[in-house]
Specification:
two-stranded antiparallel ribbon; elongated; 2 strands
Length: about 140
């Protein structure tokens, strides 16, 4: 069964916390996701049941190989979408909210195609310059 958007948010946050600090605590996750610790505990139990992490009451938890793989992919998706929105000229103050709004609604196929487009722009900087010229012309109208 595929993870829900909420499950993805938790897995992504847990993955980032473990990468940054070496561990993730319920309180850290609750603060980052702006939810109650009791909600985090319930989700951790669900993620344990679905084999995304291993949870031992009073001892903590860690991501399984399945959870790490998905966490890494979710972080990639988020970062790719942020970079994509920057390249196409979305203003900085809108990027985070826009990524949060769209990331769960795109298929992995769409994400892979956006990755292809970003690779094209990296390999063809003149194309990115042409896009900026079009944006500049259109903003003047």
């Amino acid at each position: 069964m595929a993870p829900t958007p909420s499950m993805e948010d938790y897995i992504e946050r847990i993955y980032l916390l473990i990468e940054d600090k070496g561990y993730a605590r319920v309180s850290d996750i609750a603060e980052a996701l702006e939810v109650h610790p009791s909600s985090v505990t319930k989700m951790i139990q669900k993620l344990d049941k679905d084999n995304y992490l291993v949870y031992e009451k009073y001892r903590g938890f860690g991501l399984t190989a399945k959870g790490k793989k998905l966490g890494k992919r979710l972080v990639y998706r988020h970062e790719l979408l942020e970079e994509f929105l920057k390249v196409i000229g979305v203003s900085e103050e809108n990027i985070y909210r826009d990524v949060e709004g769209i990331e769960h609604h795109l298929s992995w196929n769409a994400i892979d195609r956006i990755g292809d487009l970003m690779q094209f722009f990296e390999e063809n900087p003149q194309a990115q310059g042409q896009l900026k010229e079009i944006q500049k012309r259109n903003s003047e109208d």
